Amino acid sequence: MHIDKLLVSTKFSPPRIGTQTILRQRLLDEFQLMTQCRVGLVVGSPGYGKTTLLAQWRQAMMREGAEVAWLSLSVDDRQLSVFFAYLRGALQRLGIPLDNRIPLESARQEFVDAMVASIIDGAGSLTKELYLVIDDYQHVADPRAHQLMQKLLDHCPDNLHFVIASRVGPPLSLSRLRLMGQVVELDCGGLPFEAGETRAFLEQNLPAVKLSTEELHLIHELTRGWPASLQLIAILLRSNPQARGTLRELVWRSDDLHTYLAEDVMIHLPADMAGFMEGISLCRRFNASLAEAVTGCQSAQEMLKRLDEENMLIFRVESDDRQPWYRFHPLFGEFLSTRLERRDPAVVSELHRRAAHWLAEHRLLAEAVRHATQGGDLEFAALVIERADPASWGLEQLGPLLRLLDRLPQDVLFSRPRLFFLGCLAYALTARPAKAEVWLEQFRRSGAAQQSDEDFRVPLVQAAIEIQRDRTDPVIGLLERFKALSNDYPVTRYGAPVLLAIAYSAAGRHAEALRCLDDNPIAEADLDTELSLVAGGARMLCHMLEGRIADAERVGMAQLARAIGVHGYRSVSAYLGAANLAEVYREQDRIDESRDILANRESLLQWAMPQTMLLASICQARLVLLQESAAAALAFLERQERHFRNLGLDRALVHCLAEQVRIALLGNDRALAEEHAARLDALAAGYEQARGFQAEIPALAALTRARLLLATELPQQAFEALEVVRRYTCEYHRGQWDVTALLLMAQACVQDPQWLLQAIEAGERLGLVRTFLDEGVAVQRLLSSLGDQLSSSRQRDYVRMLLSRFCQNKVAHAVESDGAGASAMLTPRELAILQLIGQAMSNKLVALKLNISLETVKWNLKNIYVKLGVSSRYDAISWARKHDLIE
User: Fold this and answer.
1) How many alpha carbons fall within 13 Å on the CB side of residue 258?
2) Pseudo-torsion of CA 305, 307, 308, 314, nearest 10°?
3) Confidence of residue 813 (pLDDT cuts 50, 70, 90)
């Protein structure tokens, strides 16, 4: 029987695209160039949606009238004759007349050439544009099949275009075509979902499960945009929505994920390669030399090259090293290491020890300590730290160091003064000052301090403890005359000026704080270290404490971008920058950006410096208030209140109480406000003479008392309380606090505009927005009544901007006017979308108008419906008109 009679017709049919599939618009836009190109190439690891993308592209092309044929290959198509038969069948479906007399069962060169000539002549005889998609090209094994494709690509007429999808780069020479601009390419770097696509996918596939921003960000971080694993998560959460609380464990331990990886990724691999991959999976990143040291495989370089070429869920890591570094996708790496541990747990410890020794030899301190600790070799881990050049120790070592300290006997620690010093500092800098304090006292009593040449660093440890206790005045005394050695640890050389600058700023000495940082510049070689970026975060914090939001943004954006780029999303410097910049964006009314920065950074709320935890907590509470509800914000603040009480951080506790009073008053719940205010006053009574950061406590109590007095229509008493606040703001130069006090004074003395005018002058200079908006309709009315009392054009523009923001945020203040009638709060983007659909615009037109994707419009509309308690566009528009949000 002729081979054509045996062809499976389904191989010429593209897969169906389900209704829950996310449109990959940004990738489809790139493929628009296919109309001018000869070859399209999509290369990527399993499960990254290559087939779905090309099916979407085919549909789009066919809607425009193009002729597009499809060919799916499989492992059964390895034989040259079978591949020829299917290729000819696909081309014939494009209408290309081909000579069926060519004996495809023969592999002789003249028949291959005849086949190529027949295809070229047949396509050239047609006037229409022809496209052939070849999916799963990695199954093509015969070199003569590649030779056929090469000749077709080199000589085919301009109207014939090939689109090839493969797990590995096909052995085709495309250099000449690339130079001619005839190739469109997508690789592993472009195929993963972006954060917005992840969100759209989950919203579309889990309509009944409302995931928070934090959960969406966590899922995107876990999967790194891998569509196959996202599909798995959707299935798991659809069947068990309560599992969202254990997402990380749920995904890593999923039998379905392990089955997919075992059967679709690993099954065809040789045993030696599978073992090699399992061995190196214990390393978060690896190069050929490390891989050889860990696995003993002398062909490690060739193995890694092959894994890279075959896209085995392996990715290049940016590095200055001449030898390339790699990492596995985190879910795949976890799968591999789990397989190894289940099969041979004894070998795991040995592999960790080998990795530790190689990393130590190459001065990769943090990774060496981590592997030595995981391998149970605590002695070697301690030696690595002690013997390392102090200049090589930075904040990135905090995590591995703390894991070592938790397992190291205390007597061993005290016998190693250098390790002891670093351990005390590590605990002091990670919100565990009590442990550092106890250790320091025991160290002094043991007499080890007198026998050690490390004791000159003790003032720095003590200062780190004091700053965690919010006692900033002692820090100034400890560090003003502190001198680090020129070759000392970076944490000593740069950490001391950072702590001193924060203490100066807490004392209101902002200029001295900035001068302290300027007088202790970061060495050129250390510019990208964690500590240099933390110093940038300290500079930003000084601006924020003074209320200079515009300056804080300028410093903070660059600092956070560098921190994430160099050290990653979860680095210490990135966390510090995130807390600061999130609050800056919130103050600037950039609510979505603020929420995105804080997403999935729970540690900021639990285990950071007091000022960082405080900033992140209040910022998060206000974001929840704006984007969810007052009840959700109050519940969050109650949780943080308990946490700060356990840590003994009264200043952060007072801020939580003050914010609860403010929210309660917005909802006219005076009883709840008075209850929290009474607790706040009781705490503040012990801090009347406090200095530095702790001086905020009585000032905040007075500010909160003024709010209550205004709510009970006692303006004169409120004014007197605000004078207390202003004495604090003047002494400590706290501009943002001062504007808040002035706005409340303006409400207490409506007849006297001087307080409002002063607030406008300071607010414009500092770059404040939400400080005005958060005071609600009372301030809006005051601004609206100013008339021509503003002499400066800049101030007039500033007030106009504020009033326009008030209009955009009407819903956010509707709680004040009609309580339960306004049950939701919209973000500026949601309000803009609501206004546009009120003008009868389609979703697509709204997307074009706002320069956002169609999926983003749909996602925001869903949020609007949920917040307003409606189910359709008509109901949402009716609600908005009723509340004067749209005309």
Assistant:
1) 11
2) -140
3) very low
> Could you give the residue ranges of the DSSP H alpha helices within 628-714?
630-647, 650-666, 670-684, 696-711
Q: How is residue 58 written in tokens?
A: 């085919």
Amino acid code (one letter) for 537: G
Q: Helix, strand, or coil here: 48?
A: coil
Poorest-pLDDT segment among 8-17, 450-459, 464-473: 450-459
Count of residues in the chain: 887
Q: What is the pLDDT of residue 19?
A: 66
Greater confidence, 237 or 121? 121
* Tens digits of residue pLDDT in 263-280: 667 777 888 898 999 999
Q: What integer pLDDT is reported at residue 822 of this predicted model?
A: 38
Task: Phi first, then psi: give them for residue 268, nearest 5 degrees.
Answer: -95, 5
| Alpha-carbon distances of 266 from 258, 262, 644, rounded to whole Å | 10, 5, 48
**Superfamily for the 3-186 domain:** P-loop containing nucleotide triphosphate hydrolases (3.40.50.300)
| Residue pointed to by tokens 């689109």 | 163
- pTM, whole model, 2 decimals? 0.70
Residue 328, φ and ψ in degrees, nearest 5: -85, 155
* CATH of the structural domain 826-882, one choice from 1.10.340.30, 1.10.3490.10, 2.40.330.10, 1.10.10.10: 1.10.10.10
Domain spans, the chain: 3-186, 195-253, 826-882
CB 156 within 8 A of CB 119: yes
341, 346, 371, 415, 737 from 350: Cα distances, Å: 12, 7, 10, 27, 58
Q: What is the amino acid identity at position 707?
A: R
Residue with tokens 């495989």: 297
- Note whether 3-186 and 826-882 share their fold: no
